[in-house]
Here is the input.
Amino acid sequence: MKPVIAITPGDPSGIGAEVTLKALAQETFYDQCIPLVVGDGAVLRDAISFTGSPLRLRPVSEPEEARGRFGTVDLLDQRLLSAGDWTYGRVGRASGEAAFQYIVRAIGLANARRVDAVVTGPINKEAIHLAGHPFSGHTEIFAHYTHTTDYAMLLISGNLRVIHCTTHVSMRQACDMITEKRVGVTIRLAQRAMEAMGMPGGTIGVAGLNAHCSENGLFGTEEADAIIPAIERARAEGLRVEGPVPPDTVFVKALAGQYDIVVAMYHDQGHIPLKLHGFRMDPATGLFSSVSGVNTTIGLPIIRTSVDHGTAFDRAGRNVSNAESMEEALALAVRMALHREGTTA
Here is the structure.
């Protein structure tokens, strides 16, 4: 039986609805899954209008009514917004509230096993906060509503996979959070991620925090105090772990196939190489010609994948956005859902 994949389009003022429709215009997805959009009909209809999409909306009352037939978009209409309630390219409380409620509804469906995975479009953190929800991002929302304590953000682009010890905190906080326990938890989540993707015997490369992995203590003690003990403990448990590896070479080695996944210590340490690998911009137009990359949260009791880009307010409502990341997020969600069920695509 094909998995049901819930899709939340993200902030209505951004490009989420546009990239969702463009991804669902690919017939191959309907051979693999039943896509179900959890969003607002008014927002999707407007996106159909300005993109010229041939897709038609098919409202459903319950996820079990979704048919997953190419040419139609099964929509669980939340009816939170009407025309004029949002403005493309502008932060708005109504947009933030709608985006938040789409996520909460989809998580509830996944928790109840009424959908097999959730794919999320981009949200705007300022808008979410304006709506009264003090979360720092999707990852934290999913952790809260699934009652998860040990979790991590994993980014994927091609054969580069990066999981993070810390994400949406200041650099000062990130350094203070690098403890043996936290690094150890992230290493085990890296192993769990590989198992979820059907590659349990892979090798985990662990990045250092400091330049040259602190050069035997000359530039810091985090490697000796936290990272090395966590690696040694993981090895004793039978995991294939190497490191700490200097941050300026670990990603090069991963791309060469030496590591199947990299444990990064903080947000930008992992995000910069991932986006350098997957994103391409046309210098003449300033538009992205490639936005390859998927974000997924590891450690949750449900499957969640996401685009690896923001709301792109400067491009919203103009029919110029690239849906590559949304397509990859959908493909990964299907792969993980099928693997969980013990089947193959």
